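Q: I'm building a small set of examples for a reading group on sequence design. Run inverse folding on the following structure and report the sequence directly after it, with nothing in between.
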């Protein structure tokens, strides 16, 4: 997808503060953090949202969920962390590329505003 912000970040066309990268996945710090630790984990291949996960692309999602605990451990999130993915504009998804937020580094509330 040529106009996707996260595709451009994954391709190295837009700089990011990377915390993890392999052939399938990129993780980088959010530019507007909502917690002391706020990392975005994306598949490098464009998938619009959770609504576009299929049997053909679901292996990368499994891989992301193998990587998330490694990132959390590296970041020192020993007291816990939250993993969030917004699906669609009504849910607050602002970039139409599947991404998972890792939030931690402080006590998180249960508010879901």
């Amino acid at each position: 997808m040529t106009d996707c912000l996260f595709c451009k970040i994954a391709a190295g066309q837009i700089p990011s503060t990377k915390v993890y990268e392999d052939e399938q996945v990129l993780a980088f710090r959010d530019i507007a953090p909502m917690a002391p630790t706020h990392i975005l984990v994306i598949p490098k291949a464009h998938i619009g949202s959770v609504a576009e996960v299929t049997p053909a692309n679901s292996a990368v999602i499994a891989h992301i969920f193998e990587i998330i605990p490694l990132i959390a451990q590296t970041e020192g999130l020993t007291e816990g962390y939250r993993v969030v993915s917004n699906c669609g504009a009504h849910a607050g998804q602002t970039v139409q590329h599947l991404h998972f937020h890792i939030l931690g580094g402080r006590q998180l509330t249960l508010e879901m505003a």
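The two ends are 30 Å apart (CA to CA).
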